[in-house]
Amino acid sequence: MLSWPEQVVRVQSLSESGIRTIPNQYIKPLTERSVFKPGSQVHQHADIPVIDLHNLFHKDPALHLDTLSRISAACRDWGFFQAVNHGVSHELMGRACQVWRDFFNLPLEMRQEYANTPATYEGYGSRLGVEKGAILDWSDYFFLHYLPVSLRNQNKWPEQPSSCREVVAEYGGEVVKLCRMLLRAMSTDLGLEEKHIENAFGGDNMGACLRVNMYPKCPQPELTLGLSSHSDPGGITILLPDRGLARLQVLKDGDWITVNPVPDSLIVIVGDQIQVLSNAIYKSVEHRVMVSSAKDGVSLAMFFNPKSDLVIEPAKEVVSEERPPLYEAMTFDRYRLHMRMKGPCGKARLESLKFNTP
Ligand code: OGA
Ligand code: NI
């Protein structure tokens, strides 16, 4: 699919036009709206996991094991956690967020130079999925490849603001280090060799992409979503939420829970490929983003994915007669196609991979 099915409308332009009501194409069915209550409570202050990573490599085995067991519980029970003392410089996080705010504040013509297509999604975009007439999310984004180096093309990254390419490179480098550390901790906890997940994802050829989400102000936030319910298709996501904004909701035991970001934290999200590789010992988390009439928001989501042509399947070590493989083996390329065609659809894609047990 080489082009979008409909004329692309920048949500930011819609928002800035001063409309008081949103176009029908952004109005979600009642049951998908974030204020929809019956049967599914929306909690504000649930006890969501916050993990201090400082002791992950502490020489004292008790401190190390304590951190590992917290990561383990969060990945098994929630599929996500907020990380503090994660090693990524807070100052750099601030700069990365600011440079992208500045990008979205550039004149529209300058942003349009990077307009993307569904062929690779790289660049400036306003929709996921190519179905004509689909209900859209209230957001724009910028998507780029960071790893493998063979896919990294800085000419596709914004030239303005002038520090953008440099800041993205620096931020990416630090987040990659954090990601590798987490994948090692997860492998160890799952009883796999320390580098198992990294190697299964392609080692140095592992994929890493950055999606910067821009959620403009919305005159009728209760009717729509910034990002519809989905689980991340890849391995893990490291999300830098906008400062002080509680917009992200995660689904836990049937309830939508609003995440109040801890200052300077990064949010770690377990994706579908880790659920497959761990044979569902770890769960990917279904999540969505609300919008507000008072404030726009920018978030940076760094996705770590298997190299696109590698086949991912439940690891032999986590499969047994009592616990047979739950999922069909599939390359990440094929897996991701679903989201790229249909847009976000909860965990439907992962469910479709399940073997039909009689
Ligand atoms: C994503 C995502 C959440 C956010 O980009 O996949 O879930 O807060 N983002 O922007
Ligand atoms: Ni996501």
By DSSP, the count of extended strands is: 15
Distance between the termini: 37 Å
Beta-strand residue fraction? 15-25%
Lateral arrangement of strands in the main beta sheet:
2-3-11-8-13-6-5-4
Estimated radius of gyration:
20 Å
> Count the helices. How many?
9
Small molecules bound in the structure, each named once: N-oxalylglycine, nickel (II) ion
SS-derived structural category: alpha+beta
Shape: globular
| Elements, N to C (H/E) | HEEHEHHEEHHEEEEEEHEEEEHH
Low-confidence stretches: none
Portion of residues in helices? 25-40%
Arithmetic mean pLDDT: 93
Q: Report the biggest beta sheet as strand number plus sense, adding barrel if it closes.
A: 8 strands, mixed
Task: Describe the overall structure.
The protein has 358 residues and is of the alpha+beta class. Helix content is 27%, strand content 19%. The chain has nine helices and 15 strands. The strands form three sheets. It has an eight-stranded mixed β-sheet. Strands 1-10-9-12-7 form a five-stranded mixed β-sheet, with no helix packed on it. A two-stranded antiparallel ribbon has the order 14-15. A hairpin with a 2-residue loop joins β9 and β10. The chain is globular. The mean pLDDT is 93. It binds N-oxalylglycine and nickel (II) ion (NI).
Helix/strand layout:
Layout: H1 11-16, E1 42-43, E2 50-52, H2 61-77, E3 80-84, H3 90-104, H4 108-112, E4 123-125, E5 140-147, H5 164-189, H6 196-200, E6 207-215, E7 227-230, E8 236-240, E9 248-252, E10 255-258, E11 266-270, H7 272-277, E12 287-289, E13 297-305, E14 311-312, E15 330-331, H8 332-342, H9 348-352
Parallel strand pairs: 1-10, 2-3
Antiparallel strand pairs: 3-11, 4-5, 5-6, 6-13, 7-12, 8-11, 8-13, 9-10, 9-12, 14-15
Helix pairs in contact: 3-5
The structure holds N-oxalylglycine and nickel (II) ion (NI).
Residues 211, 213, 227, 232, 239, 241, 247-248, 287, 289, 299, 301 line the site of N-oxalylglycine.
